[in-house]
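Q&A log
Question type: sequence-to-structure
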Amino acid sequence: MRTYVRMTFHSEGADPTKVLAAMRSVGFEESMGMHDFVFRWKDKATLDDVIRLVTEMHERLKGLDVHYEITTIS
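Response status: OK
Response body:
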């Protein structure tokens, strides 16, 4: 399973390197293509697992003023 995140930045938001550090701290890796970040699950994740991950990511991104879209594929 993988959870993908696509980010939207703007000039009034945080520096992209701060966003990168926040995402890495949650366990995401940077990605190229349609998505900017990917989280590779070691085992099959439940919906609750994904919600916990996204909640932690959301908390780390607070104040950075970015928008994101999440897709999880099993």
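Response note: Residues 2 and 52 are 14 Å apart (CA to CA).
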